Amino acid sequence: MKELSKYNIDIYGLEDKQYAYEMESGDAFFQELEQDLIEFGHFKTHVVLNKSATMIQLNFHTVGSVTLTCDRSLEPFEEPIDQDDRIILKFGDHNEELTDEIEIINRNTTRINVARYIFDFIALALPVKKIHPDLRGEEEEIDPLDEAEGILVYSSETAESEETEEEEKIDPRWEALKKLKGE
């Protein structure tokens, strides 16, 4: 827990203006968080806090790298990270996450810990397919689902001609309703 305490920002008593914080961490950060996605990495985060009477806006700029395991060769490799993100914390009566970027925090909150936000931003910056940089230039294996794109499974030509015939055979009662609707 000592590692994550470096990410505490005391907000009680801050004036309504802009503040900047520099945070640097390594493997201990990822090991302290209870997660299995990332084990090793090193990064620096520049946090700009804009405080106003009703909210706090946090802008994060994270630069560094994490060690991932290649999905193909199972070899470890370094994945660079250069990420800009933002979180808005609005003051309210309770704690609630409204969207990915906006949260409500209690007015009486004296300290916020930004470690969870930084980890989430790093995790979202990771590629879905973890491929070693040496293998990225090789031609990708053909996915059976992608192969289906070349086969015509459905044609809308016959459906369009049937729809036009149906439109011509519209019940006169519907025509009267369309006139009332203004179409």
Structure overview:
23% of the residues lie in helices and 36% in strands. The chain folds into 2 domains: 122 residues, no CATH class; 38 residues, no CATH class. The strands form 2 sheets. A 6-stranded mixed sheet has the order 2-3-4-5-7-6. It is built from 5 helices and 8 strands. The radius of gyration is 27 Å and the shape is flat. It has 183 residues and is of the alpha+beta class. The mean pLDDT is 82. Pfam families: YceD (PF02620). This is DUF177 domain-containing protein.
What's a quick, concise take on this entry?
Helices cover 23% and strands 36% of the residues. By secondary structure, it is an alpha+beta fold.
Distance between the termini: 66 Å
Q: How would a textbook summarize the main sheet?
A: 6 strands, mixed
Overall helicity? 10-25%
Q: Uncertain segments of ≥5 residues (pLDDT<50)?
A: none
Spell the H/E element sequence: EEHEEEEEEHHHH
Total DSSP helices? 5
Strand content: 35-45%
Strand order of the largest sheet: 2-3-4-5-7-6
Number of strands: 8
Structural class: alpha+beta
For the CA atoms, what is the radius of gyration?
Answer: 27 Å
The average pLDDT value, as a whole number, equals 82
Instruction: List the domain count as a whole number.
Output: 2
Global outline: flat
Organism: Dyadobacter chenhuakuii
Region (Disordered): 155-174
Pfam families: YceD
Biased composition (Acidic residues): 159-169
